[in-house]
C-alpha cells in the first residue's frame, strides 16, 4: 500500500510498456509485408503466483495477456506470438544484491526443482524453440523456462512443513 508510485510507474514502463512497444515495432511491419514469423515477449515465472512484488508481478502477468491478445490478432497474418517466463537470471544486478546481503542465493535456489539459475547463452534456447518452424502450430503460450520453479515452489513449501 505504501509503494512509491513513481517506482511503480517506472517498472510498468519497462516491463509492460516495453513489450507493447517492441511488439508494435515488429508486428506492424510483419503485417504490412505479409511476412510469417514469430514474436516472443519476455514475461516472468514470478507472474504465476502472488508474491510481494506489487508492480513487477502484475506488469509481468499483463504480458501473458498481451501475448494472447496479439497471438489472436496477428495469427491471421501468419505471425505467432508467445512468451517466455524465466526464473531468476544471474545478472550483475542480482550478483550485487546477493553480495550485499538482501538476496540469499541458497534460499532462492531452494525453491527450484533444478539447482541452477539462468544467465548463460544456452538459456536463450526457449526463445529459439518458440521461433522454430518445428513449432509453427504453437501461439499464445507462456513457456516457463524456470528450472522447475513453478513445479517446485509450493511442493517445497509443503515438504518443509508448511501445510
Give structural attributes.
globular; 163 residues; mainly alpha; 50% helix; Rossmann fold; 3-stranded parallel beta sheet; 6 helices
Describe the structure.
By secondary structure, the protein is mainly α. It is built from 6 helices and 3 strands; from the N terminus they run αβαβαααβα. It has a 3-stranded parallel sheet with strand order 1-2-3, with helices on both faces. Helix 2 links the parallel strand 1 and strand 2. The longest helix is centred in the N-terminal third of the chain and has 29 residues. The protein is globular and about 50 Å long. The two termini are 28 Å apart.
Explain the layout of strands and helices:
Elements: H1 5-33, E1 37-42, H2 56-75, E2 79-86, H3 92-100, H4 105-109, H5 125-131, E3 142-145, H6 149-159
Parallel strand pairs: 1-2, 2-3
Brief rundown of the structure:
The protein is built from 6 helices and 3 strands, in the order H-E-H-E-H-H-H-E-H.
Strand content: 5-15%
Mean residue pLDDT: 90
Per CATH, the class reads Alpha Beta
Number of domains: 1
**What strand order characterises the main sheet?**
1-2-3
Q: Which residues form runs of ≥5 with pLDDT under 50? A: none
CATH architecture term: 3-Layer(aba) Sandwich
CATH homologous superfamily annotation: NAD(P)-binding Rossmann-like Domain
| Oligomer status | single chain
Secondary-structure class: mainly alpha
Task: Note the gap between the termini.
Answer: 28 Å
Molecular shape: globular
CATH-derived topology: Rossmann fold
Say how many strands there are.
3
Helix content: 40-55%
Amino acid at each position: 500500500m505504501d509503494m512509491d508510485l513513481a517506482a511503480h510507474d517506472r517498472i510498468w514502463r519497462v516491463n509492460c510498456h516495453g513489450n507493447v512497444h517492441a511488439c508494435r515495432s515488429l508486428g506492424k511491419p510483419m503485417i504490412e509485408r505479409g511476412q510469417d514469423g514469430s514474436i516472443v515477449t519476455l514475461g516472468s515465472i514470478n507472474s504465476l503466483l502472488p508474491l510481494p512484488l506489487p508492480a513487477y508481478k502484475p506488469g509481468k502477468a499483463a504480458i501473458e495477456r498481451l501475448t494472447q491478445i496479439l497471438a489472436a490478432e496477428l495469427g491471421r497474418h501468419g505471425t505467432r506470438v508467445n512468451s517466455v517466463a524465466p526464473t531468476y537470471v544471474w545478472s550483475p544486478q542480482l550478483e550485487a544484491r546477493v553480495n550485499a546481503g538482501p538476496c540469499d542465493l541458497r534460499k532462492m535456489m531452494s525453491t527450484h526443482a533444478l539447482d541452477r539459475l539462468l544467465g548463460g547463452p544456452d538459456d536463450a534456447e526457449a526463445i529459439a524453440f518458440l521461433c522454430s518452424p518445428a513449432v509453427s502450430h504453437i501461439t499464445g503460450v507462456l513457456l516457463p523456462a524456470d528450472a522447475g520453479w513453478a513445479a517446485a515452489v509450493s511442493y517445497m513449501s509443503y515438504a518443509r512443513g508448511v501445510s
